[in-house]
Amino acid sequence: MNNQILPVKSSRAWWLVIPILILTVIAFGWWGWGNQTAKISSNSTLFTSEKFGVRFQYMSYDPKSDSKYFIEESDDNIFIRPINEGSKYPFIMIFYKNVNESFMHAVTRIGFVDNKKDDCKIVPARYINHKLGYETLQIKSISNQQDSITSCQSKYSRDWSVGYFLYNPSVSTKLLFIEDGQDPFPSEPELYISGNVPDIVDMKPSASDTIEIFN
């Protein structure tokens, strides 16, 4: 009688062991994924410029291209540039204004120093991520037709890129121009995605998405 019962007990025991094994594998998988993410995230660096009152997060090392990047401050510009590469483009341009000057008036003053503004318009920048309460403006051609792409002659006009002015109403003495040339720089390495889509997409945070303006 006992020999007939033992196999049944053994079978029930295995049904208890299998879920435990599955949960153990899942737990180790999550542990490994978490450690990998933490390791990759260590390449993300928080840069603070006390000189300009600007802070943002950027990827100091890109494991995908094995490239290192560093920050350079020059005049009223902040650059993100690859190490061992001569070319550089401003990531952020800093401009100053009177406390009582509106954001719109400041952009108009900066954008049209020696240029006509008849063929231009100043509108809120679209598809831009920024901190809550911040404001954006972008100088564009009145028409997006091919024959008028160059009609807006402002140095800061952008029709087919994402250069825009950024303003924090709590800091009323300055505004920034964010140049699209650095927009693809992510703030976190793991934001890279693969497949049939670009490596960095608009809905994923880039370095420009994390910009903070302070006094």
Rg, Å, rounded? 26 Å
Q: Count up the helices.
A: 2
Largest sheet: 8 strands, antiparallel
Mean pLDDT: 74
Give the SSE string: HEEEEEEHEEEEE
Annotation, overall tally of beta strands: 11
Order of adjacent strands in the largest pleated sheet: 3-4-5-6-10-9-8-7
Strand content: 25-35%
Secondary structure category: alpha+beta
| Overall morphology | elongated
The helix content, as a percent range, equals 10-25%
Low-pLDDT sequence parts:
28-41, 190-204
How far apart, in Å, are the first and last alpha carbons?
Answer: 85 Å
A few lines on this structure:
The chain is an alpha+beta fold and 215 residues long.
Task: Walk me through this protein's architecture.
The protein is of the alpha+beta class. 23% of the residues lie in helices and 27% in strands. The chain has helices at 2-41, 103-111, and strands at residues 44-49, 54-59, 61-62, 67-74, 77-82, 90-96, 120-123, 135-141, 164-167, 174-178, 212-213. The strands form two sheets. Strands 3-4-5-6-10-9-8-7 form an eight-stranded antiparallel β-sheet, covered by helices on one side. The protein has a three-stranded antiparallel β-sheet with strand order 1-2-11, with no helix packed on it.
Secondary structure: elements and pairs:
Layout: H1 2-41, E1 44-49, E2 54-59, E3 61-62, E4 67-74, E5 77-82, E6 90-96, H2 103-111, E7 120-123, E8 135-141, E9 164-167, E10 174-178, E11 212-213
List its traits.
alpha+beta, 3-stranded antiparallel beta sheet, elongated
